[in-house]
Design a protein that fits this description.
Elements: E1 3-7, H1 11-22, E2 26-30, H2 34-38, H3 40-51, E3 68-70, H4 74-78, E4 83-86, H5 92-105, E5 111-114, H6 122-125, E6 134-139, E7 148-153, H7 159-171, E8 175-178, H8 188-204, H9 210-225, H10 230-236, H11 241-258, H12 268-275, H13 284-313
Parallel strand pairs: 1-2, 1-4, 2-3, 4-5, 5-6, 7-8
Antiparallel strand pairs: 6-7
Helix pairs in contact: 1-3, 8-12, 10-11
Length: about 325
């Protein structure tokens, strides 16, 4: 089994620790803030409690926490690691400093991946001697319940590191998606940005309410996208497949895209408008709603897994 080092024990780091331990891997965790590290066990125990009723805590949930060990020093946490998952702040200078330390201290063959959702690996790894083993392993929050992880290489990233990372993430039960090259925002955030911009624009112009917009996605697009992507969707939405779909609907879609919102949609005014649709959603109320969300995601994950297993036996 691979040995995993988690660098940064915040929200994403804790979830990554759960993911790898759930798969039976040894997980070694370090954080620069001892107080954050002290809360690691409590956070992981809460994830175990929340996922066990849905059979999402692995085959032996009672032993999961024992496979996660905190360490007081970075050197200790990195000892023997096959994959290093860095989950620190989204600040370029911090990433540059920590990657320099990771490249200097991690075992020579260890892959070093960042959970970054906004910073391309070339910005903080290109000057390193071990840049060949550095990449982005971008998860979706919460990674223990949403399995996709984007693998984004930098110009200096080697195929060996990409292949090894893909192998480890897949063994941990995640769904790795390899990008051919790095691009700002990777794939998921670029898609999310476009959908969010047009959503905000439609709300700001009074064409739809916040609730109506969310209902359109969760009871419309989201229903299909929970088990098939937009490419398979269009392949099924015309008798002749994708080419037929684009022939029938391509001109209309092109017209709509040309009229869609861009960066101007992200304004303080629409932020206030959307915020008013969720009164009192702050502090402890947010945490309760997050717990509800995670339970729903765990139940959905169980349902989709059961459906895949049933299809495999047909």
């Amino acid at each position: 089994m691979p040995v995993i080092a988690i660098i940064g024990a915040g929200l994403i780091g804790r979830a990554w620790a759960f993911v790898f331990a759930r798969a039976g891997m040894e997980v070694r965790v370090w954080d620069h803030d001892p107080a954050v590290l002290d809360r690691l066990g409590e956070g992981v125990a809460a994830m175990v409690a929340g996922t066990t009723p849905h059979d999402r805590a692995g085959p032996a949930p009672e032993g999961l926490t024992a496979r996660i060990r905190p360490f007081a020093t970075l050197e200790e946490a990195l000892a023997g690691a096959d994959l290093v998952q860095e989950s620190g702040p989204e600040v370029l200078e911090i990433k540059q400093a920590i990657f320099a330390d990771l490249d200097r201290l991690a075992p020579p063959e260890a892959v070093i991946a960042s959970s970054s959702s906004a910073l391309m690996v070339s910005h903080y790894a290109d000057g390193l001697a071990g840049r060949w083993r550095c990449l982005v392993g971008h998860p979706v929050n919460p990674p223990h319940l949403v399995p996709v992880v984007e693998l984004s290489p930098g110009p200096g990233t080697g195929e060996r590191a990409m292949a090894r990372a893909e192998e480890i993430y897949r063994a941990a039960g995640q769904v790795p998606v390899r990008l051919a090259r790095e691009i700002d925002g990777f794939v998921l955030n670029r898609l999310q940005a476009v959908v969010l911009a047009e959503s905000l624009r439609l709300i700001a112009e009074g064409l739809v309410t916040v609730e109506g917009l969310d209902d359109t996605v969760r009871h419309g697009l989201g229903r299909r996208w929970a088990f098939m992507g937009p490419m398979e969707t269009i392949a099924l939405n015309a008798p002749g497949g994708v080419a037929d779909y684009l022939l029938r609907y391509g001109p209309m879609m092109a017209r709509l895209v040309d009229d869609c919102a861009r960066g101007e949609a992200f304004t303080p005014e629409v932020a206030r408008q959307v915020g008013e649709a969720f009164p009192g959603l702050e502090g402890e109320a947010v945490r309760r709603r997050q717990a509800w969300r995670d339970g729903e995601l765990a139940a959905l994950d169980r349902h989709l897994a059961d459906r895949r297993a049933a299809a495999a036996h047909d």
